[in-house]
Design brief:
The chain is of the alpha/beta class. About 45% of the residues lie in helices and about 15% in strands.
Length: about 350
């Protein structure tokens, strides 16, 4: 059975979305509605310095603001870019958020993409993977009941410290790591008993992503913590319209705006161009009317074997009323029918 999450990776279009305060109010309204509609978790992505995601440099701050506005929906960064930060400080922040949310935190962490402004934060992209693996181990140690003492390749804490507070969820909130292409990294994530995030992006088939998921599950069989249950989450963009024609008319201009902002952030053309038509034809985007979107999700479920699907409803400066209407149609016309399928 596939469960559904809300996913926020904003492509800021100020002339459509207004000031920072107006933008953040949009997001809060969306997440509050996502809780009302029954979405399981709200995932918030860290980016910096660019309209592609850069209006959310600190998911932790938004989660803290949402803690008192929500009561059921889980929340987490997707992801915190660990090589840009001190892992002890991240452990403290996440433990505080787990307390503030009453144990509703999920923790997504990643090494970031190659163009994540490592130099601005004093980080070295050439060692990001090795540093990241050490940081993951440090997070787990910092959340444990034992004092933290550490002597690693990148971090040193020779004097034991008691990292406080401790998270509500024990031994710690669920950890997630994204992997989109590196099979060895996917296997390592499984071996660590960590949940997997992935982006089934590149056409023409889902075969590469399925191989990655299979490699991850092979790693789960070799893991040190077999008692921990683990899941696979895919994240994609969605728009559910009243009819296929209205869906395309309403969403396509915003999808093109999203693609433009994303290409500018990468500094070059798309590696695998994904038009509205291609996204809808290949299920790389959950676009269309309710029946088309049900077909997309069934295909993702059956061909990839995922457990969770996180959907981005807000993209390319789309008007808030369209975003909220799409979320409501998904919750009322897509998700219930898929639940009956299982």
């Amino acid at each position: 059975m596939v469960t559904f999450d809300y996913y926020l990776l904003n492509t800021y279009v100020p002339e459509a979305e207004g000031s920072a305060s107006e933008l953040y109010a949009r997001w809060v309204e969306q997440i509050v509605l996502a809780e009302e509609l029954g979405f399981g978790c709200a995932w918030l992505t860290e980016h910096h310095f660019h309209p592609f995601g850069g209006m959310l440099p600190s998911p932790q701050l938004l989660i803290a603001a949402l803690a008192s506005r929500t009561s059921r929906i889980r929340m987490g960064p997707a992801v915190t870019i660990l090589p840009l930060h001190n892992p002890v400080r991240i452990a403290e922040d996440m433990a505080m958020l787990d307390v503030l949310t009453g144990g509703r935190l999920e923790v997504g962490v990643g090494r970031g993409m190659g163009n994540q402004y490592y130099d601005v934060f004093g980080a070295d992209p050439s060692t990001a993977q090795q540093k990241f693996e050490e940081q993951v181990a440090m997070l787990r140690t910092a959340w444990s009941d034992e004092p933290l003492r550490w002597d690693g390749a990148f971090f040193h804490c020779p004097r034991p410290v008691n990292v406080t507070p401790k998270p509500v969820q024990r031994p710690h909130p669920p950890l997630w790591i994204p992997v989109n292409a590196d099979l060895a990294h996917a296997r390592w994530v499984g071996q660590q008993s960590i949940n997997l995030m992935t982006l089934p992006w590149y056409p023409p088939t889902f075969a590469p992503t399925r191989r990655l998921i299979d490699e991850y599950r092979a790693g789960l069989k070799e893991r040190e913590r077999p008692e921990q249950s683990c899941e696979v989450l895919a994240y994609l963009t969605a728009y559910v319209g009243e009819t296929p024609e209205r869906a395309q008319r309403e969403a396509e201009p915003h999808w093109e705006a999203y693609r433009h902002v994303a290409a500018d952030q990468r500094g070059g053309p798309e590696v695998a161009p994904l038009s509205y038509e291609t996204g809808a034809a290949t299920s790389r985007c959950v676009f269309g009317d309710a029946e088309m979107c049900r077909q997309h999700v069934r295909r993702l479920r059956d061909e990839l074997g995922i457990d969770r699907l996180a959907l981005r409803f807000d993209f390319g400066g789309m008007a808030q009323d369209l975003v909220l209407a799409s979320m409501r149609r998904f919750a009322s016309e897509v998700a219930p029918v898929l639940a009956w399928d299982n």
